[in-house]
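Hi there. Long-time user, first ticket. I'm pasting a complex I've been working with (about 1361 residues overall). I'd like to know whether the download I got is complete or cut off, because the file seemed smaller than I expected. Thanks.
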Amino acid sequence: MSVSRRNFIKGVIAGGAVASSGAYLFRGNAPLFGQTSAPGSVERLITLRINGQARRVDVMKQETLAMTLRYKLGLTGTKLGCDRAECGACTVLVDDVPHYSCSVLTHTIRGRSVVTIEGLASPDGTLHPVQQAVVDEQGFQCAFCMPGFVMAAVGFFKTEPNPTREQLAHGISGNLCRCQDYDKILTSLMRGGEYLRNA
Amino acid sequence: MADKLVGQNYIPVDLVAKVTGKARYAEDFRADGMLFTKLLVSPMPHARVRNIDMSAALAMPGVKAIITADDLPMLPNNAERALTNEPLYVGEPILAVAAVDELTAAEAIERILVDLEPLPFVVDPLQSLRPGGNNPRTNGNAWGAPPPNTPPGTPAPLETMKWTEQDFNDEDAGHLPMGKALEEWAFGDLEAGFTNAALVLDETFTVQSTGHHPMETRSAMAYWQNGKLYIHASTQSVAQTQPAIARWCGLEPSQVVLICEYTGGGFGSKGGGAVSMSIPAILSKKANAPVMMRISREEESFIGRARTNMSGRARIGFAKDGRITALDLFIVQDTGAYGPLGDHRSAGLAASLIYQPPAMRWRAVNMMTNTPPRTQQRSPGPMQANGIIEPVMSKAARQLGIDQVEIRSINSPSGKALFGPAGPTGQRPHITSAFIKEALARGAEQFNWPMRKARSGQRKGSKIRGVGVTVGPHGAGSIGWDSLMTIRPDGKLYVQSGVGNLGTHSLIDLARVAADELAMPWQKVEVIWGDTSKGLPWTCLSVGSQTTHAMTRANHAGANDAKRKLQEIAARDLGGSPDDYELGNERVYRRGAPGRGLTYAQAATRAIELGGKYDGHELPMDINPMTRGSATRLAGLGLMGVAKDNYPRDGVTYSFVIGFAEVEVDVETGHVTLVDYLGVGDVGTVVNPRSLLAQIKGGSCLGIAHALFQKSVVDPKYGHSLARRFHYSKPLTILDIPATMNASALDMADPETPVGARGVGEPPVGAGYGSVMNAISDALGDDIFRRAPVTADLILMSLEHGRPMHDPLRAHV
Amino acid sequence: MAVIRDVMPAFELFQPASVSDAQALLKRYGGEAWLLAGGLDSFDWLKDRIKRPAAVIDLSGIADLKGIKPWGDGGLEIGAMTTLTEIVRHPVVRERYSILLEAAESAASPQIRNQGTVGGNVTQDTRCWYYRAGWSCYRAGGNICYADTPQAINREHAILEADRCVAVNPSDTAPALIALDAQMVIRTGAGEQVIAAEDYFVGPGTDITRMTVLKPGSLLTSIRIPGTWAASAEGSGGAGRVQFYFEKIRDRNVWDFALVSVASAMATTGTTIDRIRLVVNGVAARPLRLAAVEDLVRGKPRNEATAVIAGNLAIEGAQPLTFNGYKVPLMRNLVKRAIRGVEDVDWTS
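Hi, the file is complete. Here it is re-exported in full:
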């Protein structure tokens, strides 16, 4: 029986930076809870492509991408608002497509490219056009939802770079804000689209 | 001198951290050896813990500690604690397990045997009021009024209130039964008011409960170091939460270091922190390791607080011209498993203010039920008052043939309007200012009210349009808080801010007031916030729309203290009297001789040399001990501005937002579409225009969601919350409002505060709520709904049967 | 055992590359296996710790289950693991089966549509909030329905075909697929089985623990849409003009399932209804094809009078619970609209 092992990244792992299996969440005594692998099931130690880097990480079978990002890779910009695909705070891009990282098993995105809020700005700190627009328009308030909205918008602009206000509202409608000035959020993200087109 | 900063937009300093994901909220912190906790919560709405067998859990490798209510200090007046041995609602935490990871903690909880003795319970306040109805607690079902002539903060007594069968006679007609009230006040001649009325309406309305549900749940991480508790948590008010945590944990405030630079929303539910913060704190001590408590969305629906639901009955008399002649308001409030504060009193006061009845009686019972605890939610009370009374106002306007804007204008307060009952001196209190008539007029013009009104009630195909307007009020500012700032030898102004960072930017706006007073360029101002070890002044709770008003006053005072010290140092070194010196170009200089002066950097160095009051070694007597401690820590760093707000204020500060809404109702499906919305603020001087308009629109949206679908649901037979997460509780999405919403503000200064600014956070909620419901009833006619949210089921059933078909009085449906 | 939520229990995870590998795993783990499509229904069950499979079989690596390709005479075959977004963006769906586009686009939220699959959408479990809270009701193997007590809060529940259980089917695409006369291709241990979409769904009278005919060991592999009901202008294909109607009524315009939804495919010549398939969802445990209404209106003019009798017939036998009486007029009105359409209104004049 063949089990797919899609596109393991064969890149060099910088400095042997294997995210510790003893890190934070899910570091329980493996044999205790049936974490030994049955024949043919997935390998726990996998390579992920996050924000353009190959990251080697020990991932539990039931671990969601949001948990891997937040607790194994230190990428806490991805927020958990509901953990149930009901708010969008955890939105990241998987192969350029917005996904709720709370509802994706990390093992299912091996070999695919993940971009989080931390991966948008340039290494020199220059903000992504959508980020710059959010700053210029002061788009959000408490901003707990902001990373998810920004990722959803960045993903949406890849398929519709020049949307109307209504189209963009639909595109980012899978994101909840409780401070709820959606009007200003939309204004700032429309500005983001404008910056992107002029970039 | 450059233009003032107050009144201008700016880019808040924290935005880049937020937009890059670098801003760290409570659950974003990590510590070496950090454990995780999970909570065992009550499966019963009311029970007593007889026994807990945790032996199997403790025997598991990886389980480090378990705490129960017995590990927490008792609190005065039997106040709510984070864990309990007598759960009063489904979801109330009973114990907490710390383990090496969440999976282990969860597996451990499944191995714990909790022996619970079920106790009688009730989830509906009216059911508890019935003869023989269950009580939510073994010793009562209602909160009484604090005894007369007791100091503020005196706890309300627990009472048992039962009404008679006769009291419920009205119930079948859909009227709220009105038995004996536990609280009551009145003013004016009520009977004469009704006798002289041309129209008297008597209507019942039920305002729903909704969870606060900030995007960030009340997760917290705690550890101990050198006998001090360090806690990363989520609060609306950093300065005020430090002593609260100390109280919940049995510590002195000086033993607590609270770090909270970013708060993912609160809406009142994290006003002074959350009692659940004591769980990781105490557990961390017991386990001798850092503990992270991640609160799930479902747990947030249990412990995360909710708005008090209330059924209200309003009997209102109107003169022919629409003027109110008398208002008789009865409220049955459900404050859930704890309390006692409730929103019933603020609802009564708000009603007396915005509708200005010459005679009014307010009666209320503040009931407990075995449902999740309530606390103040954005516009607590005034929003419910809008809900209960606005349908009556709309109906009266239709029956009397008066325009909806006009009837609200003629009944609205202006200037130093009176409200509420007479106090101990025999005088009724009054507000500081109101410009509602101006705001209504401006809004009617901006919204093109006459055009929209003309099509209100018109049907095209299956769709009917409707328009509505509502004045949302709320108290908008406290007084008497402290300010703390230093000008340091680097020439910069450092403003200490004890406000929580909810993204309203009031925490930064207050520093702009100080910068204006000191003529300090904004790029030379640093705001220090979010960490009690950094020296924060005693600051108001960031709740109830008070921060902007309260802390612009305080910082006006603190900046003027610094200004005086600059002038005194200059006079001492350069001659003349302090009043001969003025500020500009980052210098204090002799009037008419700009070359003769000191730079701020020089003055700061001189202040340190002089010591005493100049650099914080001598402090005013009237500041709070917290400010004193913080100032002492900062003493010697530069020239210190430190003061209590002692500015006079004649009246109580209130703000107002007017909501204008147009809806389209599809009578075949019952679906309501909000077509357009405008919010107009009468909120004093505009400090930060973009943030202000965001508050008006965001607050309105919360009210709009309450009008359209947001709710809590509890099964009465089993006492379980059913709408636990977002999916079932239905907060507003971006597609439920028009793609463009509008807001504006009068920008008329309040005369009773030096900066002229009043608060804005709460008033738009009632404006959004009332205006959308009024628009629905203007489209469909009277008596379609008697409760909120006004969902398709209510509309279709009423249209189908020609009368309201839903039980208006049942809670939590 | 104390209840604890929001921590997924440990399980084995398999990522087979072929349907036959998936079947081998299903056979190996039997009732302990859980098929994972997009996961948006599954993760709720798993995070609530109510379902505790030993093995989760992730179907996302099986290329054969993905994509949309031509099938039969002008039809389409849609792999069960095709996402709703792929369906929404597919040019042939847009041109010929817009009712499926509308239905898919009305589901949940953009991110859910990016990940959620059509197979998952039609196979998902009911969202009855008593059942989903883990209560031991009929559907969960117990002997009570918590949603059908005099005090129960059942605004979202069934008005038709209730049999002990009053839950409803939540799928948005199901009524559109039934209206298009789609066929479901199922792989069982015994081989491939093809059944009509309307027979894929089962009510509590047939099997109270399942929403579909799928038994352990079986999986849905694709959905075939025949050319018969492709949208067309009058004259093309000789059988009149085919038009669609889809409408979903919900509280919030994002995330919410339908209170009631309706889907119809109708062929008309002039104003006469030649052929019609009419389906409602949100009113029973399975999407209901309204065959009697179809029979009634066939040959009648497409107008208000026909719509009224259709609506009235549709709700015959409806038995509302305490809080869902509104579904009766709502279903009636949606059926009316499906027959006669809805007028676009303009308020600027």
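A couple of notes from our side: The mean pLDDT of chain C is 96. Chain C touches chain B through 45 residues (CB under 8 Å).
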